[in-house]
Write a structure and sequence with these properties.
The protein is mainly alpha-helical and 121 residues long. The protein contains six helices and two strands, in the order αββααααα. It has a domain of 73 residues: Serine Threonine Protein Phosphatase 5, Tetratricopeptide repeat (Alpha Horseshoe), CATH 1.25.40. Strands 1-2 form a two-stranded antiparallel sheet. The longest helix has 14 residues.
């Protein structure tokens, strides 16, 4: 691309993305999960959305596991689904700062700034 092309906005043709391998899932539509033996698997986001409530129920009264699940859900983009778990963690966590921080971060990601300020102040 020459200098005039850069200045005047002439763009190179962009080749279309290569098709995915037949057995491979679209990475934007899957997330990595680990089973109880530590094996990594990829599952569709919609399947994880169905499994997630059961995972929250299993660790509802275990603060460490609940905190880990909330962080995982937040990282995977399941922010709204993490809110009730974050509220529960803020009630039961023996480390009050961790529970408040995760609840505040959840509120911030949901753009509920006033509630986040109350929790984090």
């Amino acid at each position: 691309m020459g200098l005039f092309d850069k200045l005047f906005g002439k763009k190179r043709a962009v080749s279309p993305p290569l098709p995915a391998h037949p057995g491979q899932q679209d990475p934007a539509q899957t997330i990595k999960v680990w089973d109880s033996y530590g094996r990594v698997m990829e599952i569709r986001r919609e399947e994880w959305r169905k499994i997630r409530p059961d995972n929250f129920k299993k660790c509802w009264s275990a603060p460490d596991e609940l905190a880990n699940l909330i962080v995982t859900c937040l990282n995977d983009g399941f922010v709204a689904e993490s809110l009730e778990g974050a509220r529960q963690l803020s009630r039961i966590d023996p480390q009050p700062h961790r529970g408040a921080t995760l609840l505040g971060v959840t509120f911030l990601q949901l753009k509920r700034f006033e509630e986040a300020e109350k929790v984090l102040s």
